[in-house]
Amino acid sequence: MVRTIGEVAAELGIEAHVLRHWEDVGALTPRRDGNGYRIYDDKALEQARTVLKLRRVGLSLPEVTAAMSPKKSAAQAVVRAKIAALESEVVQRQRAITFLQHTVECRHRYLDDCPDCATFVRET
C-alpha cells in the first residue's frame, strides 16, 4: 500500500515537516513518484516507525541515522553507547531521589546543619 506524507504523518501522530526533516538529515529515505512527490510504501512506513521509536527512547537524529546503518557493528556501537548513557542517567537520578528523600525527612531545619546532607552534597 502506498501512502502520502500527510497520511504517514497522521498515522504516526507527527507533523509532515518532521518526516521531511528526517529525510533531510538522512534518517528516512522515501521513494519519489514521477512528479517528485514522496511516496511511502510499507518499507518506508516501517522505517519511519523505527525512526520515531528511536527518537522516543532518546536517540538524537545523528544517533538514529547511525543506529539504522546497514553495517550492524556500527549500529550496535551507537545503541550500546546510548544504553551506557541511560544507565548512567538512571544512577544519577536514583542518587537525586535518595538525596531529596533525605531532605524531606531530615530532622534538621537547615540542610547545612545536617552531616548526612553534607555527605550527599560532596558526592559526585
Automatic annotation (TrEMBL):
SUPFAM superfamilies: Putative DNA-binding domain. It comes from Streptomyces griseicoloratus. One of its GO terms (molecular function) is DNA-binding transcription factor activity. Keywords: DNA-binding, Repressor, Transcription, Transcription regulation. Residues 1-70 form the HTH merR-type domain. This is MerR family transcriptional regulator. CDD domains: HTH_MerR-like. The keyword DNA-binding applies.
